[in-house]
Amino acid sequence: MSDEWGHVRQMWHLLEPLHAVVYYAPEALEEAAALGYTTEERWPGYFAWRAAPLGAVGADRVTGTFHSFSPRMIRAYVPAVWSVASPDAVLAARARAVDRAYRTLFGDRVDGPELAEAAALARRVVSAADVTGRPLAGAAAALSWPDEPHLALWHAATILREHRGDGHVAALVEAGLDPVESLVSFAAVGAARPEVFASRGWSGAEWSAGGGRLLERGLQEEDGTATDAGHMLRAEVERRTDELAAAPWTTLDTVERERLVELLGPLWVDVISSGLLPSENTLGIGKV
């Protein structure tokens, strides 16, 4: 990673866990169940929570925007999730889930001045984000801002992570990596074990075929590890992702960015130490 974009990646590392709480917190599972979703697995809630800003879209739209999931897996949940609850109902339940989860995680700090200050700074960053051509970020940004600071902080974290994610998809496409190759190449550089990426729904044959294509391009060894060229390509993808995510952060000066890091740090520690999030994940946080 280039030092030029180090602060951009640092902010992602701090904000991503604050967003991801909604996919794992017991309160989110309870709200999903109240809507009528099965919670034996997290995917019905996941696809509903994340896709709801797009509206009652079909599988093709979700496949194109989420990128790394097998189309077959997405079709198993979308558009069926909208027959259980409408996007508006999902968004309302999602807000309740975040409210409850944050109150459990952060206690009285939810209503404290530090969290409100963090929310205000993050909202300033969002206000500088150009979401043109970024479908998930654009859909999230079109939603109304919550009044409560802790929900506003989650909303800001969500817009910024989707802004980054949309850029990441663009960087993968620029690198000539299709959805399964994107995952195989990420596993090859040690971001996570291949088994972790099984959650994205690709078959063993599809995974092997993706590895074969990378082998032909000189990006992967026979044993599934990345070649020097493979490491370089993934490093360029991450650099390009940071670059595409950087513009909104210029709205804060260095002192303000450092203050936001200071404010988010304790919240990040609370989320990570809660054990809600998997220690090994498909995002490779802490790995690249």
Tell me, briefly, the overall form. Answer: globular
The ordered string of helix (H) and strand (E) elements is: HHHHHHHHHHHHHH
Question: Whole-number radius of gyration?
Answer: 19 Å
Oligomer: single chain
Largest sheet: none
Detail the poorly predicted runs.
Answer: none
Termini separation (Å)?
8 Å
Beta content: under 5%
Q: How many separate structural domains?
A: 1
Task: Give me the number of helical elements.
Answer: 14
* Overall pLDDT metric: 95
Q: Share of helix among residues? A: 55-70%
Helix/strand class: mainly alpha
**Number of E-state strands:** 0
Describe this structure in words.
The longest helix has 26 residues. With 288 residues, the chain is mainly alpha-helical. The protein has one domain. The chain is built from 14 helices and no strands. Helices cover 64% and strands 0% of the residues. The model has no long low-confidence stretch (mean pLDDT 95). Helix 2 packs antiparallel against helix 7, helix 8 packs across helix 14 and helix 9 packs antiparallel against helix 10.
Write the layout of secondary structure elements.
Layout: H1 6-24, H2 26-35, H3 43-51, H4 59-66, H5 71-75, H6 81-84, H7 87-106, H8 113-127, H9 135-141, H10 149-174, H11 179-188, H12 204-216, H13 228-245, H14 254-274
Helix pairs in contact: 1-2, 1-10, 1-14, 2-7, 8-10, 8-14, 9-10, 10-13, 11-12
